[in-house]
From TrEMBL:
Residues 1-16 form the signal peptide. One of its GO terms (molecular function) is serine-type endopeptidase activity. CDD domains: Tryp_SPc. The keyword Ribonucleoprotein does not apply. One of its GO terms (cellular component) is extracellular space. It holds the Pfam family Trypsin. Keywords: Disulfide bond, Hydrolase, Protease, Serine protease, Signal. SMART domains: Tryp_SPc (SM00020). It comes from the Eukaryota. One of its GO terms (biological process) is proteolysis. The keyword Transmembrane does not apply. Coiled coil: none annotated. It comes from Poecilia reticulata (Guppy). This is Chymotrypsin-like elastase family member 2A.
Length: 272
């Protein structure tokens, strides 16, 4: 199954490529719709200035876990030069300045120590320490995280949000998209006809109905779940199928946040 992951890195949602000349149309994220403005306040756009020309393009999503820290996927880090990145909080339309945005530079990139570039090995998670803190302007919010080792029941409906591709032709939305995804328990997702051995217990599978999915550009973004009466980010978008993103029995796979809480808190505590 490892060869499939290699293909995914080029064609699936898991790849954070150099910014492309995307086109905008009136379609929707795969199976999703325009999010209601000012709802998913912890969602950010991670943007890259590939040539240090002051021109930033969206490459990945992420979540605000602290006023100084953003959680995203390790595979989204395609340059070690912090000056090439910026975080945009309070974003809704990528192609329109709305006055709600906060543009913040990155001071430090902290990648999980066990990440080795192999998606099948897991640990696809990173934290970005910001130069300046994100402040409450009414359009941003620090996310709630799950409890340690908390898992989602099979079929539990969560929501993926992001500005990822809407189709195989490379179209992206202007506005933040949201789509429901049902959790697929590990016992199912690890079956051979699903993701097999590359679906680890430190991952969350969601979707796989062949209709709704995340796609490239959603990487690093949140899996939002209403658990215990509170919206929590249970997953970080990690990988999906090669080719068409919405394939039956190939759900979007997320890094399970509840498996990495000790590392997340230890990184943030070191800065105190």
């Amino acid at each position: 199954m490892i060869w499939l992951v290699v293909l995914l890195s080029c064609f699936g949602l898991i790849c954070a490529n150099e910014p492309l000349s995307y086109k905008v149309n009136n379609g929707r994220v795969i199976g999703g719709s325009d999010a209601k403005p000012n709802t998913w306040k912890w969602q950010i756009s991670l943007q890259l200035d590939s040539y240090n020309e002051g021109s930033f393009s969206h490459i990945c999503g992420g979540s605000i876990v602290d006023s100084f820290y953003i959680m995203t996927a390790a595979h989204c880090i395609i340059s070690s030069d912090v000056s090439q990145y910026r975080v945009v909080a309070g974003e809704y339309s990528l192609f329109e300045y709305e006055g709600s945005e906060q543009f913040t530079s990155v001071e430090k990139i902290i990648i999980h120590p066990d990440w080795n570039g192999d998606l099948a090995n897991g640990n696809d998670i990173a934290l970005l320490k910001l130069v300046n803190p994100i402040y409450d302007n009414g359009y941003v919010e620090i996310t709630n995280l799950p409890y340690p080792d908390q898992t989602l029941p099979h079929g539990f409906t969560c929501y993926i949000t992001g500005w990822g591709l809407m189709d195989y032709n490379g179209s992206v939305p202007d506005k933040l998209q949201v789509a429901p995804l049902d959790a697929v328990e590990h016992a199912v997702c690890s079956q051979p006809e699903w993701w097999g051995s590359i679906a680890l217990k430190t991952m969350v599978c969601a979707g796989g109905d062949g209709v709704i999915s995340g796609c490239q550009g959603d990487s690093g973004g949140p899996l939002n779940c209403l658990t215990d009466g509170v919206w929590r980010v249970h997953g970080v978008v990690s990988y999906g199928p090669a080719g068409m993103c919405n394939q039956k029995f190939k759900p979007t796979v997320f890094t399970r946040v509840s498996s990495f809480l000790h590392w997340i808190y230890s990184v943030m505590d070191q800065a105190l």
